[in-house]
Design brief:
The protein is α/β, with parallel strands linked by helices. It has eleven helices and eight strands. Helix 9 packs parallel to helix 10.
Length: about 240
């Protein structure tokens, strides 16, 4: 982990790299394949989940992101489409025991999860126990076999050095992505955090931005900063903006 002037220098460098990464906006089809179409509210009904799946199939989103109780239902509804099912684990607080998170992850895979988003134990990290966080992430990645795991930092609760440390943990644990936020914390994704995470994990690791992404402008700024996946409940509206 970088500290003091060395960390600050690398962090400033990330901003420069972000500026150099600017490119043409994605096409509508390309953007759709970068979106995890999300519905994670506790009060979501079966009818709303049906709508989520149907919208995802119509627009060819990457996945639907849902609470674990809906995993098998969504997998069955989407089985003849290209859309994956992306349940969450230890969501949204990350404060379940490692055993419970492992069982939740294993059940999600059995029920048809094609990807999985897990929340780290934020309290353990901030208490000075990064080794606990790493062991938990590594165990879940191993339990999921070939199902990609995204590691949720909940960036609004962490210092920049803590964000960097979790990114290093995710890489060592062989996760597939780091992810900014649950959407239930103090704040959501920012280009600054995405740029830091991209620098920390390198060019080939996945970075998912989520939380508070409501417009096409939000989306493009985060992609420009280094995101390779977008988690949002506003995917349909964002695609409409791109078509206008």
């Amino acid at each position: 982990m970088f500290k003091g002037k060395e960390f600050q220098s690398r962090h400033r460098g990330g901003g420069k790299q972000t500026a150099e990464r600017k490119q043409a906006p994605p096409s509508r089809a390309q953007l759709a394949r970068l979106i995890d179409h999300s519905l994670l509210r506790a009060q979501a009904t079966q009818g709303e989940i049906d709508q989520l799946c149907d919208e995802a199939a119509e627009h060819h989103f990457a996945t639907v992101s849902v609470n674990p109780v809906w995993t098998a239902y969504c997998a069955k509804r989407l089985r003849d489409t290209s859309v994956g099912v992306n349940p969450v684990v230890g969501f949204p607080l990350g404060a379940s025991t490692a055993h419970i998170k492992l069982e939740e992850a294993r059940e999600a895979v059995r029920h048809g999860a094609s990807e999985l988003d897990m929340v780290i134990n934020i309290g353990a990290l901030r208490s000075g126990f990064p080794q606990y966080v790493e062991q938990e992430v590594a165990a879940i990645v191993k339990a999921c076999h070939d199902v990609p795991v995204k590691v949720i930092l909940e960036t609004s609760y962490l210092s920049d050095e803590e964000k960097w440390r979790v990114c290093e943990i995710a890489v060592r644990a062989r996760a597939a992505y780091v992810k900014t936020s649950t959407g239930f914390g103090k704040a959501g994704a920012t280009p600054k955090d995405v740029a830091l995470m991209r620098e920390a994990v390198g060019p080939r690791f996945g970075v998912k931005a989520a939380g508070g992404i409501r417009t096409l402008r939000d989306t493009l700024l985060l992609l420009e900063a280094g995101a390779t996946r977008i988690g949002t409940s506003r995917g349909v509206d964002i695609l409409k903006e791109l078509s206008e």
